[in-house]
Amino acid sequence: MDNVIYGRNPVKEALKSERKPDKILMTDTERTPALSEIYALARQNRIPVQSVDKKRLDALAEGGNHQGVAAVVPQADYASLEDVFQKAQDAGEAPFLVLLDGIEDPQNLGSVIRTAECAGAHGVIIPKNRAVGLTAAAVRVSSGAAQYMPVVRVTNLNQTIDLLKERGVWIAGASMEGQDYTKAPLEGAIGLVIGAEGKGISRMTREKCDFLVALPVLGHIDSLNAAVAAGILMYEVRRRRS
Fold first, then answer.
1. Which residues contact 46 (CB under 8 A, 6 or more apart)?
2. Fold exhibited by the domain 81-241
3. How far is residue 229 from each of residues 5, 55, 168, measured CA to CA in Å?
């Protein structure tokens, strides 16, 4: 089932969000305080709770740690660019966006969404082709952040960059060829472009960037995980805004 998430924190956050789960699946053999809290939240929101055995949850989680609970959630809805700009306007802040170029791993997408929510970004933009979408796995890894962070799926990332530039957003691409991120102009309206591990940002997208920023790599490995690099840069943008 593509629309099943599992784990106590993702399920609890889904119950607190505007897009509530359709149904909660809970083990009938273990009722910890955390599961009791989830049960109470579900009843409060009039969401049906179905007792299932551990084997059923094991099968749904496909080997993952379900912690005794899962939820059937609606298919993820994508936001629009206008939603993102409206969120920034409502917060009284310059737009702060994260653009992912060719990220195919749902773990990385989920991690970026989670960090973007924590760092105060206004939206995550992903391309429709040759990239992972808002799968159940990505939503699950986001630990509930996908319920709050607008994710925009666009047909052409480079055309979207042009639209962002027209609205005053500076585009910073993460690249080993860029300037040190601590010295880069990351103030104001910013869109961070993060490329796929190994390949990095595509050539055409790199040429669209206003400038490139680099993270120092001092060990034997020549690059960081995409989600880790995105997290460091997002918090540098947040630091500049504090």
1. none
2. Alpha/beta knot (3.40.1280)
3. 26, 38, 24
